[in-house]
């Protein structure tokens, strides 16, 4: 089967490679010439465990090529970004989806399949994409098949989860669902769940909204604990020993192109009936400012204004900085006049080594749960002006002797931080 994928980012590229390693001929399309050139030189441009080996396998079989333009195919997969619009509800910006669909229309033939994997607002496939294909002269469900098939994967384990996780197949018509199921069945070993396109869209969004709301509860608890001088992390640990309780962990905010983005699409689609979702978004969006305020309190007695940030990505052990609260915190600290040194072994732009980053620093601020940060040794702390750490991810398990370790459970013992009201 010939497949063209539009968008070669964190989902489009792994998806393309997996189809290629299962015998399909893939044309991977991206608007960035640097991405196309890198891939055609035999290298992937994202950090993902095992993906380079799979890409080597796809290239050896002659089943993948990168291009700036689509090619005639049996199926077309749209996997482009869907950022937020700059409006009151931060609704879904469909400009990249529109451009991608327009780019494949000249190559469509009767019997082709169009899949939207991009995360989109409810009813987008039926109310936005379907009319585009109809205006081009096709009848969806008869001579062109259209479906929304959202991914549900964990960065760092994408290749495995694309194959083994259940996959929702949301066809615009039952015939569309069956045609899409036939394609995914060649790769996916997990259950293929049939649904309408709109059900698939809302299901994907609510999976991430569920997590966002629960993280917001944990973040609110962390603020309450600091305000009342109670160890919120201990509270969470004890509460989770209840057989029907599973509180999440607090942190500096949420990021990536899921939790920090998707709930807004639901709220924008139905603003009058989503107050809980909107409140959770406000709580999680407030965490970077809360971390900065807490840091300012800690730094009041510092001999200098140097802070070392550990971690720039939105989650651990990946290189993805999209919507990262760490990046927002760095920007806010720099705006407040702090000298911020950045150390992240997964991000190329964080070029300082650990000794340089920590030298003469008055605080290590841990913002990402990279496994490398589970232990902070004297290599990092020996040359600090003040040897102390604020661990916002509760990842640090071992630390050099004589270093003060603070987290959202005990930071109230070191500051008089007042919690801002939302």
TrEMBL record:
One of its GO terms (molecular function) is NAD binding. Coiled coil: none annotated. InterPro entries: 6-PGluconate_DH-like_C_sf, NAD(P)-bd_dom_sf, UDP-Glc/GDP-Man, UDP-Glc/GDP-Man_DH_C, UDP-Glc/GDP-Man_DH_C_sf, UDP-Glc/GDP-Man_DH_dimer, UDP-Glc/GDP-Man_DH_N, UDP_ManNAc/GlcNAc_DH. GO terms for biological process: polysaccharide biosynthetic process. The keyword Manganese does not apply. Keywords: NAD, Oxidoreductase. Belongs to the UDP-glucose/GDP-mannose dehydrogenase family. PANTHER family: UDP-N-ACETYL-D-MANNOSAMINE DEHYDROGENASE. NCBIfam families: NDP-sugDHase (TIGR03026). This is Nucleotide sugar dehydrogenase.
């Amino acid at each position: 089967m010939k497949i063209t994928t539009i968008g070669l980012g964190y989902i489009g590229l792994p998806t393309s490679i997996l189809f290629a390693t299962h015998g399909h001929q893939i044309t991977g399309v991206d608007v960035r010439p640097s991405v196309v050139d890198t891939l055609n030189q035999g290298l992937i441009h994202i950090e993902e465990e095992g993906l380079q080996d799979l890409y080597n396998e796809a290239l050896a079989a002659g089943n993948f090529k990168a291009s700036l333009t689509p090619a005639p195919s049996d199926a077309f997969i749209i996997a482009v970004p869907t950022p937020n619009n700059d409006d009151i509800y931060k609704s879904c910006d469909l400009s990249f989806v529109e451009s991608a669909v327009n780019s494949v229309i000249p190559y469509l033939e009767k019997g082709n399949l169009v899949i939207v994997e991009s995360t989109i607002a409810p009813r987008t496939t039926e109310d936005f994409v379907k009319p585009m294909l109809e205006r081009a002269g096709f009848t969806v469900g008869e001579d062109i098949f259209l479906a929304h098939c959202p991914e549900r994967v964990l960065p760092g384990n994408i290749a495995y989860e694309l194959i083994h996780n259940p996959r929702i197949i949301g066809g615009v018509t039952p015939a569309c669902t069956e045609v899409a199921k036939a394609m995914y069945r060649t790769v996916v070993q997990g259950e293929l769940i049939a649904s309408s396109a709109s059900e698939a869209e809302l299901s994907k969004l609510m999976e991430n909204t569920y997590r966002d709301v629960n993280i917001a509860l944990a973040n609110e608890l962390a603020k309450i604990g600091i305000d009342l001088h109670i160890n919120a992390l201990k509270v969470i640990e004890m509460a989770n020993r209840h057989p029907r309780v599973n509180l999440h962990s607090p942190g500096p905010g949420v990021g990536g192109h899921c939790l920090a983005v998707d709930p807004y699409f639901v709220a924008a689609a139905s603003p009058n009936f989503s107050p809980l979702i909107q409140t959770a978004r406000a709580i999680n969006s407030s965490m970077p400012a809360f971390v900065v305020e807490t840091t300012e309190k800690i730094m009041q007695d510092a001999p200098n204004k140097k802070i070392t940030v550990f971690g720039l990505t939105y989650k651990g052990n990946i290189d993805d900085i999209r919507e990262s609260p760490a990046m927002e915190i760095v920007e806010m600290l720099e705006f407040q006049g702090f000298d911020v040194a950045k150390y992240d072994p997964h991000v190329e732009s964080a070029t300082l080594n650990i000794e340089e980053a920590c030298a003469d620093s008055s605080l290590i601020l841990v913002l990402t749960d990279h496994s490398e940060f589970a232990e902070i040794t004297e290599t990092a702390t020996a040359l600090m002006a003040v040897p102390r750490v604020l661990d916002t991810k509760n990842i640090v398990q071992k630390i050099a002797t004589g270093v003060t370790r603070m987290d959202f459970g005990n930071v109230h013992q070191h500051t008089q931080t007042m919690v801002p009201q939302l």
